[in-house]
Hints:
By secondary structure, the protein is of the alpha+beta class. It folds into two domains: 3-162, Aminopeptidase, CATH 3.40.630.30; 163-245, Glutaredoxin. 25% of the residues lie in helices and 27% in strands. It is built from seven helices and 13 strands. The strands form three sheets. The protein has a seven-stranded mixed beta sheet with strand order 1-2-3-5-6-8-7. The chain has a four-stranded mixed beta sheet with strand order 11-10-12-13, covered by helices on one side. The mean pLDDT is 93.
Amino acid sequence: xxxxxxxxxxxxxxxxxxxxxxxxxxxxxxxxxxxxxxxxxxxxxxxxxxxxxxxxxxxxxxxxxxxxxxxxxxxxxxxxxxxxxxxxxxxxxxxxxxxxxxxxxxxxxxxxxxxxxxxxxxxxxxxxxxxxxxxxxxxxxxxxxxxxxxxxxxxxxxxxxxxxxxxxxxxxxxxxxxxxxxxxxxxxxxxxxxxxxxxxxxxxxxxxxxxxxxxxxxxxxxxxxxxxxxxxxxxxxxxxxxxxxxxx
Length: 248
């Protein structure tokens, strides 16, 4: 498999989404805008020549849009291999490239979000275990911070306190989201419209800078849904899923 590094110079021509083929789609353009602003902060987006089927996205943990303390580590935003491309070693290729690059940049190791059981949009814990990752911290909502240290005495990354105990002082449904996930540009407005039509108390909070993301009340900032202050899920909601969740 041949791989391409996406940069400011080629991002407009490259396909960067796992499920959307139209580069002019609002979901793709919002993601590309977010990526473009991160390249100067050290973000790396490595993808296969195939259209968005295999890629890894990672950034120095100090610049990650997550409430973690992991100075000196590289944080993996996403490692994705889809459909028929699974089972051919492409995840290993991408992870190996990330490890080599991170070691070359003097990093202490890698860290990534997962959970004890596989959850949507999170790394597979079985795969992480197979590759030598270990759990280094847990949040109350079941989300875990995993790490792969390059040296045995490397300091363990940790969640910030706000992420370890996800809770907000707001009633109704509240979504925290960023433009890191392209699907939010389409589906957050759909849920917002659905809630309004059914008179459901709802608020969408768009996290638009690193500082807010690093102090968010949830370990997952790409998409986190709360109800009456309690964390519910990081799974994307369409109209049908949201109404089912609201028992309508």
